[in-house]
Write a structure and sequence with these properties.
It is built from seven helices and 13 strands. By secondary structure, it is of the alpha/beta class.
Length: about 250
Amino acid sequence: MPATPAWPPASTPRLFVAAPLSPGARVTLEGGQAHYLSAVMRLKPGDPLRLFDDATGEWLAEVADVRKRDLTVAVAERLAPRETVPDLWLLAAPIKKGRIDWLVEKACELGVARIVPVVTQRTIVDRLNPDRLRAHMIEAAEQCGRTALPELAELAPLREVLRAWPAERMLIHADEEGGAPLASVARPGPAAILIGPEGGFTTEERAAIAAVPAACGVSLGPRILRADTAAAAAVAVWMAVAGDWTDR
């Protein structure tokens, strides 16, 4: 007896939508999403697709109507609830375009709950395009099966972030002068990883970080890492030791 094929198929297109999803809801997709589904994937009425909204989870839908500039999809049933992610923040000084895009992509893929861009005294890039960064996170989530997106905080001076630091959240900062191995200090619970700019923190900033009771300086190994590499490496170690990688 032939096996029943999986439904929806693994090749079903998967997209993020900002509108809240529910059974029976109808969503109109425009612009790039509509072009992708109609012109690239050549979907027709009745064809399936997967949708997620960063709030209620992932849903099965089908194309209801295809028009020249948009298409309408009808939401059928929920496939999975929104995933639960560890309470980990990533604080990072902005770096040049391309590398900051890569950084937020990997933070999304690795399961970071919140990304906080911070301006330090040696930060060269002092402006960000949040819409572009969010687009990179969405693309990563669509491709990797994520149902949750990291929250992207506004760019803020490091001194202000430290001044308002919550006492219950561990602040793990990569210390170029050395510290305990990250794996030895990571533990479950609210935490944040702070990565400095190219050139590291100034003496004044190091003192301000050390003054935070919840702060802990760590080493990321014997090799010098670029800022984006350091961020990905630190998050990966924390997830493996204290995050949800330990549940699998």
